[in-house]
Amino acid sequence: MTVSSATRATVVATPRGRRRRSSFTAYSWSSLLYVAPALLFFGVFVIYPICISVQTSFYEYDGLTVATPVGAANYVAVFTDPALREALLHSLVLLFFYAVLPVVIGLGLAGLLSRIRIYGLTFFRAVLFIPQVLSSVVVAVAWRGILASDGPLNSVMQAVGLGSFATSWLGDFDTALPAVGGIGTWVQYGLCMVLFLGGIVGIDRSLYEAARLDGAGAIREFRAITLPALRPQISIALILCITFALRNFDIIWNTTRGGPGTSTAVPSVYIYQDAFQNRALGQASAMAVVLTLLILVIVGIVQFALRERSDVPRAARRSGGVR
Amino acid sequence: MRIPTRSTPVRRLALAGLVGVTVVALAGCAAPGAGGGSDAAEQEDIAEQVTADQVADLGDITLTMWADQAEEPLMDLLVPAYEEAYPNVTVDITYKSFDDLIATVVNAANSANAPDLFQGNIGYAVDGALVKAGLVRPLDDVADVYGWNEGTGASTLAPSKWNDDATTFGDGTLYGMSPISEVQGIYYNTSKLEALGLDAPASIDDLEAALPVAAASGETPIMLGNADQYAGTHIFSDIAATTQDPADIRAWIGGDPDQSFVTDGNVEAAETMAEWADAGYFGDGYDGLGNEDAIARFADGDGVFFVGGSWNGASLNAAEFGFGALASGGVGATASPWHISSSSENAIASIAFLEMLHSPETGQWILDTGRLPVITDGVTAGDELQQQTLDALTATIDAGTQVGYYDWTTTDMLTVMGGGLQEVMAGRSSADDFVETVQAAWADGHGSE
Q1: Which of B378, B365, B405 is nearest to B127 (CA)?
Q2: Which of A63, B162, B206, B298 has the fewest beta carbons closer than 10 A?
Q3: What is the pLDDT of residues B179-233, one digit of tens each?
Q4: In what residue span(s) does the ABC transmembrane type-1 domain sit (chain A) (predicted)?
Q5: Topology of A72-320 in CATH?
């Protein structure tokens, strides 16, 4: 989706936008020609594989011999497997670490970076964004070292007298899930921050001046102007982070493989195992379809909850003017 | 920015298109797996040894292969020798990491341009799938002609033999051959053992007596990296092979329906693991340490013992470490077997390659490149550690206690058993629950075949 054109659509007065859309419908068939190459690509490499997955989910299939149709049995298995229920629960815990925390940290950092004049701001912004750029395998290997029982984290803890809390973070049944979650927070907060910084740049400076004239402090300013104006960015950040959290595989696979025991197993670990190790492609497809629907539902709820209810600048001005 | 509202005409059109494409795609497709894939070429049994003239009659050909990355040093020696003996053949090998190989080789074998020769992996996940789908050439004629069924390597062919439905292995038609063997056992740090006044352990009892001594001195008794979940199962199998008849374990691994994992011996072995973990014999944080990291630390002088196998030997300096088998005769297995594609047009050239792999000369090269050959006759070890490993291997093969690996049993056994053992060692589940869970996964895997 192109952010810039959508932004422009908001600026353009609604009636004109409507007229433009209706004329678009009239010419839609010739317009379709323009998007045909992209649509073809999308169809072959996205839609078609999705359809195959859906179809495969109704079969028992080893990837080699002819599949046998099994009706909804694979789906029944998805909903009755206690291991999968446990995995879903782990995913919900990870939602907090992979989505909620990064958004909160991102908001805090964006608020700070946009207020304080720092020399080399671009540099800091780039550095804080690095986790997002690194390959997740690299991230996983690095953190495996950091979180090891004789790793830097425990050394620091021992140095400051917290040695009794030091443990093998990824190897302990109680700490493995939060530890893996922490890695996700580290990966995602940079993306959130950059999104929010971009949003803050777009806020009319005069709103802040007005608020300051009215005697608003930093926190009040943030709550009354920045936060409401960032609603669309928060929505996008949450959608990206939630999707990342629920389909997260590479970080977990490269740090704990779902262990110790099954304490960090998430649905995508089971999907991988069924598809590539157990050769149970039908079962894996059913799980993947359910996971996709779950992601769509949760993302839909977030989108609905954070939809724009009124014109942002006016709302900001109104609350900014209180006092 | 504004997220556009959902029900504009464009969106509806797109949605309708999407639904349409879906319906067409679903209706137009037959069941997955119907059609496509590779076509089996005409495969003739050989009655006599393949000659260079026969291979020369094939004209200028390229033999394509897929192999484990670990085979590269050996192949660098073998391939030039092969190309010299059969000058009209060019060998083209694609190397993959072991994980990549076993994840992709079955699909590659099923593709229209399958490699002529490739390595699979013993057990249901790879070899079982290959045999069931008829993707690999039976090798009984080759074994007969070249006498593979006699001599030291004969028993190591068993895990590549499958029954007609590909439901059990260990006996039946031969489909693969591995020139490389592995033996499990224990590595010890020679100078630390001396400092502690201990002898090299020759049995589990010896080890059990040595562990508290090592722990009391402040050393980590056994260096274990169990984050990948499999290192623990190696220790378990070493113990389990002494608490019951190894032949029963081998039968269970091969899929014998009369066998069960719920045995007193397995419960005892799991309880021993839990006791050792509880006593701190594996140190702290072993579940957070990768196996590769653990062997690196052990090589650096951390820990008194390391329970692993011959594949770890290459990481260790022969002057500082020793090796011994714990079970009587030791526990071991053969490495990934080589298969000839059933769609290969050049089966004769492939057979010539396999025979060269199986020769005593290659056996020496295998030892020289840090592995163990199945043909141990006439090979000489380069150092003391290699000799100890080779002795353990010959003892294993002689005693017939090469039980194989538990994860051959079902495709998910590595996870079930590895994860379950982690729970037992952490005191979160009982040894009884563990053996029941493993047996349930085994029954599940074999019932659905």
Answers
A1: B405
A2: B206
A3: 998 899 899 999 999 999 999 998 889 999 999 999 999 999 999 999 888 899 9
A4: 88-302
A5: MetI-like fold (1.10.3720)
Domain with CATH 3.40.190.10 in chain B: 52-177+336-370, 182-333+402-447
- Residue B305 DSSP SS3: strand
From residue A308, alpha-carbon distances to A30, A197, A296 in Å are 33, 19, 19
Cα dist from B34 to A61, A80, A281, whole Å: 11, 30, 15
Instruction: Let me know: does B295 contact B211? Beta carbons within 8 Å.
Output: no
- Among the partner-chain residues B3, B293, B423, the one whose CB lies closest to the CB of A261 is B423
Which chain A residues in 170-189 lie under 8 Å from chain B, judged by CB atoms? 170-173, 176
The phi-psi region of residue B59 (left if phi > 0; otherwise alpha if psi is between -120 and 50; otherwise beta) is: left
Min Cα distance B110 → chain A (Å) is 7
Exposure of A94 in the CB half-sphere (CA atoms within 13 A): 33
Q: At what angle do helices A312-320 and A205-213 cross, to 10 degrees?
A: 20
Q: How does pLDDT run across B95-145, given as a tens digit for each residue? A: 998 888 988 899 999 988 899 999 999 988 889 999 999 999 999 999 999
A68 touches chain B (CB under 8 A): yes
Topology of the domain covering B182-333+402-447: D-Maltodextrin-Binding Protein; domain 2 (3.40.190)
Q: Which residue in the set A48, A169, A261 is minimally distant from B428, CB to CB?
A: A261
ipTM for the predicted complex comes to 0.74
A63–B107 CB contact, under 8 Å: yes
Instruction: Give the per-residue pLDDT at A11.
Output: 42
- Helix and strand totals (H; E) in chain A: 19, 2
- How far apart are the C-alpha atoms of A84 and B97, rounded to whole Å? 29
Domain topology for B52-177+336-370 = D-Maltodextrin-Binding Protein; domain 2 (3.40.190)
Out of A61, A65, A277, name the one closest to residue B412 (CB): A277
Give backbone dihedrals phi and psi of A306, rounded to 5 degrees, phi first: -105, 15
Cis peptide before A260 (omega within 30 of 0): yes
A32: Cβ contacts below 8 Å, ≥ 6 apart: A39
